[in-house]
Amino acid sequence: MKKIAILGSTGSIGKSLLDIINKDKKNFEILLLTADKNIKELSFQIKKFKVRNVIITNEIEFINFKKKFANKKVNIFNNFNSFKKIFKNKNIDYAMNAITGLDGLNPTLKIIKYTKKIAIANKESIICGWSLIKNELKKSKTEFIPIDSEHFSIWSLIEKAKDNDIEKLFITASGGPFNNYPIKKFTKITPKSALKHPNWKMGKKITIDSATMMNKVFEIIEARKIFDIEYNKLNILVHPKSYVHAIVKFKNGLTKMLIHDTNMIIPIFNSLYPNFQKTIKSDNLDFKIINNLNFNRVDIKKFPVIKILKMLPKKNSLFETVIVSANDKLVHLFLEGKINFTDISKYLLRIINNKKFKKYKRITPRNIAQIEQLSNYVSLKISSLSV
Predict the structure, then answer these.
(1) In percent, how much of the chain has pLDDT > 70?
(2) Whether residue 140 sits in one domain with residue 204
(3) Are 279 and 232 in contact (CB under 8 A)?
(4) If exposure means fewest CB atoms within 10 Å of the residue's CB, which of 40, 53, 122, 330 is most exposed?
(5) Angle formed by the axes of helices 214-227 and 123-140, to 10°?
(6) In the beta sheet, which residues pair with residue 171?
(7) Is the pLDDT reported for residue 288 higher than 70?
């Protein structure tokens, strides 16, 4: 029986993983679920999967939840330092980090030593703290699998190939809801229209990142860090159908691409059941569609955040934390109706071109406290827009 821990079980990735486990319950034991505020969903999951340990990071919800489950056989904690009370040595077979934002970095670093395999769906952890994660993975001899569909595809395609074996690598983008939208109307884009992704069902933050194309900037940075491939080999192609998730051109003359449904169940399922251990039903591929696959370059005038790719340092640095934190705050301001859609890219580019933030290109993150401190500083600056 495989022992499982899910960080962020109430979000779309966490729920997808639980849907898979539900069809094979007898082979899994869920040791831990974590949530922030979605207590209704967490309560449902606890009862359905007979979970004994939960972490609720929101202080108010933690107190309310403790009262609700006072007489139940559930151990309830409110921070990730509780891992040492929940786990004994390396007794997790598979851990999933599906927490959104930089909040996911701390639990990632803490849980690695307790699990044999960690699947990470948290972009921000990888972008800002990859050097720290990599050290922990090596120290703990823990296997890592990326869950983003693009990076799972790259991971599947390149196998043991190195940077020197690869000529070019393409990550695909659907183009989001505004790929064919007139640029003159971009200032009128509302949160409601930006949240209507044509292909994927995702959380609000990542859906807005898809609409601005910032999601693809993040994915290029992730690919650089995870696979140690130089930035000049990494490219973005707009592929509206979203069937192809990555294309790798090798120096031996071969070009490989990976195709699967626009459903995160596929990479999650294959990370849980590697090497064809189980089968999954997926939509039948329509070969008429495959015969008409379209690929185009990104329109930088529409999506100016793509310019960031020319500004990135080669090595891991705190500059990535500046980018992630600034974008995160700006997206939330847009969702709250406090700034326009085009302000996201405008302010983001202004911030990362500012001398006071450029200096972080030369600084390598030493610890999580340093990353969190800088993130808070950037968020405060954005709040006042004094940049």
Answers:
(1) 95
(2) no
(3) no
(4) 40
(5) 10
(6) 236, 246
(7) no
**Which CATH number do you get for residue 367?**
1.10.1740.10
Instruction: Tell me the HSE value of 124 on the side-chain side, using a 13 A CA sphere.
Output: 25
3-state class (DSSP) for residue 33: strand
AA letter at 46: I
* CB-based burial, 8-19: b 16+ in 10 Å, e otherwise: bbbbbbbbbbbe
The residue among 293, 310, 327 that closes a domain is: 310
Q: Are residues 155 and 217 in the same domain?
A: yes
Q: Is pLDDT of 273 > 60?
A: yes
Range of 110's domain?
2-147
- 201 with 263, same domain: the answer is yes
**Tokens standing for residue 162:** 């190195």
Q: Are residues 298 and 327 in the same domain?
A: no
pLDDT of residue 238: 93
Which residue has tokens 């609409």? 211
Same domain, 33 and 113: yes
Give the 3-state secondary structure of 148-182.
CHHHHHHHHHHCCCCHHHEEEEEEEECCHHHCCCC
* Token pair belonging to 80: 């990730």
Which of 191, 300, 190, 179 has the alpha carbon at shortest distance from 242? 179
Cα torsion 342, 346, 352, 357 to 10°: value is -110
Give the closest residue to 318 by CA, choosing from 359, 355, 379: 359
DSSP track, 367-378: SHHHHHHHHHHH
Last residue of a domain, one of 251, 282, 310: 310
Rounded-to-integer distance, Cα 123 and Cα 102, Å: 9
Indicate whether 73 and 126 sit together in one domain: yes
Q: What is the pTM of this model?
A: 0.91
Using one digit for the tens of pLDDT, what is the confidence trace for 115-160? Answer: 999 999 999 999 999 999 999 999 999 999 999 889 999 999 998 8
* Total domains, the chain: 3
Residues 154, 227: contact at Cβ < 8 Å? yes
Are residues 126 and 171 part of one domain?
no
- Residues 304 and 223 placed together within one structural domain of the fold: yes
